[in-house]
Amino acid sequence: MKFAIKTIAVCAMLASAGAAFAQKGETVKIAWIDPLSGLMAAVGTNQLKSYQFIAEEFNKKNAAGVKFEIIGIDNKLSPQETTSALRSAMDQGARYVVQGNGSGAALAIMDALEKHNARNPGKEVLYLNYAAVDPDLTNSKCGYWHFRLDADTSMKMEALTTYMKDIPEVKKVYLINQNYAHGHQVSKFAKEMLKRKRPDVQVVGDDLHPLAQVRDFAPYIAKIKASGADSVITGNWGSDLALLVKAANDAGLNNVNFFTYYGSVTGTPTAMGSAAAGRVYMVAYAHMNLPGPLNQVVVDFKKKFNDDMYTGAVYHAFTMLSEGFAKAKTTDPVKVAAVLEGMKFKSFNGEVEMRKTDHQLQQGLFISKWEKAGGKYPLDSENTGYTFVPVKYYEPYVASTPTSCQMKRPS
What we know:
Strand content: 15-25%
Radius of gyration: 22 Å
Strand order of the largest sheet: 7-6-8-9-10-14-15
CATH topology of the largest domain: Rossmann fold
Helix content: 40-55%
Largest sheet: 7 strands, mixed
Number of helices: 13
Structural class: alpha/beta
Low-confidence stretches: 1-20
Shape: globular
Number of domains: 2
CATH architecture of the largest domain: 3-Layer(aba) Sandwich
Mean pLDDT: 94
């Protein structure tokens, strides 16, 4: 009897040990779905390289002992193409998908996965959103299979306007944004928060333009100039921000400060150059010279590609997944999703938390200013000799915004 009990105990221990390392050596396929064609192709190409590069780094060592494989698929920045790309990814065996450029594409993935996962038990797919920041995605449209790693539009605006309210020179603000969900939200929250924090500030313009279609922003710059604005707030990204800044420089609009979300993204640093020094600000969860684990990745990426690694949320993705796999003792998306809810983990910007209520990552935010690189901030953007230098850091609670999410969890 004693022998039998011991045998059972040993078997239980071995089973437990086996479960703890069940995922070790397993290859996890992650489908990357974002633009590789059109005006935003340069952004997508950079981010795909970022995923592939950081996957290689995590393949050397991660908490779960798994191997990551990235499957890149072009969605042409289209929600319809995104749905087709998602089907292709699942056909190739991917049970994790990452996407970030465009909230329309993000919503297409969320809708498709709600249906797929309900109809295909045992074949569920989990979505990590690394850059689509429409607040509705974690509010009225929140979904269990969606986890956002970037700070949303309202969180960034909370930090940005908290900084702007203490600048007395800010008196007249012009809003210019892309005509889709994110751009509408930037405009909405800018007006609401400025009114609350600085009711004396005038909004002297509020333009929306087509996403990734405008090649000449001179007419918009002429309107900004005519308005008498001293500040511009824009959520533009990619070519839409690079061309906007270029048009401002060409027109000699050197007495207006630009408050941006994506000043470090492909093409914009080159467009800014020395002419924009001291005039462009950015709100983000990181900056190029942030000390810690991300810094060496940025340096090595630059050496390999002569390009900037500016999407730090990619690092969040691999850190969270590998720790999630280790904690769940499996790579099964159903069990992993359960442990990601409420998870706290150490990342490059301190301890962050995946809020259980709405699956929105809670993290600190930086306000940085475009200045000459050097000293404590030696790494420059796009070989310009300039970089975004942090001027203010806000703890997670400052930028955190409430959620209206009524999460429907699978039974």
